[in-house]
Amino acid sequence: MGLVAQFGSVFLFPAVVGANSPARPLYSLETNCSVNQEAARCKVEAFDGQGTTVYRTTVNNTRITYRLIDTPAVRGAQLWDPGKKTWIPLDRLSLNFETNQICINGESLCTTNPNYFSSLRESYPDLRTDLIISRFRPSDGRLSAICYSQEACDAGF
User: Fold this and answer.
1) Cβ distance 142 to 77 under 8 Å?
2) DSSP-based three-state secondary structure for 3
3) 3-class SS of residue 144
4) Are the C-beta atoms of residues 98 and 17 closer than 8 Å to each other?
5) Would you say the pTM of this structure is higher than 0.85?
6) pLDDT at residue number 157
7) Whose CA is closest to 91, among 70, 73, 105?
8) In whole angstroms, what is the distance from residue 94 CA to residue 123 CA?
């Protein structure tokens, strides 16, 4: 359970759960995180909600919530803006298989989740990649492009 709800459906997730009213809990994890490249301990909670997986990360007294949308009509990612009380488009999401880290918007928030990456490797034994980066449209957070290797991502992605 982590960021990739279904490997075959492009590493994303669905959209009707509010930041303060998540649906069915999937897991809770105490782990290492970094916020703007500053290391910290954090708690990650994942919730399933009708085509959306919501991730709530708490670092010190700060909560960062984002959701991954994976429905037949929409694949995308959004970040909860607590000031505006609305979802805003996520720029990108990356899965780094070498470090077992999931990062949003570059390295603004990275969480380490080795159990999740182990489950991906077990579920998809033919998976041969070190990095997957998904980019999203700035207008609505819908998926716009994906690269599946460091070389591809470095080549102007």
Assistant:
1) no
2) coil
3) strand
4) no
5) no
6) 65
7) 105
8) 19
Residue type, 11: F
Q: How many CB atoms lie within 10 A of CB 55?
A: 23
Which pairs from 122-128 meet CB under 8 Å and 24+ separation? Answer: 123/7, 124/7, 127/7
Exposed e or buried b per residue across 124-155, where buried means at least 16 C-beta atoms within 10 angstroms of its C-beta: eeeeeeebbbbbbeeeebbbeebbbeeeebee
Q: What H or E segment, with its residue span, contains residue 153?
A: helix 150-154
What are 37's two structure tokens?
């490249």
Rg (CA), the chain: 14
Residue recorded with tokens 């990062």 = 103
Establish how many alpha carbons lie within 13 A of residue 13's alpha carbon, considering only the half-sphere containing its beta carbon. 24
- Dist CA 149 CA 96 (whole Å): 10
CA gap 69, 77 in Å, rounded: 6
Distance CA 51, CA 49 (A): 6
**Distance between CA atoms of residues 99 and 77, nearest Å:** 22
48 membership: H or E segment, kind and range: strand 38-49
Helix (H) or strand (E) holding 70: strand 62-70
Residue 5 reports pLDDT greater than 70:
no
**pLDDT for the residue numbered 14:** 31
What pLDDT does residue 64 have? 95
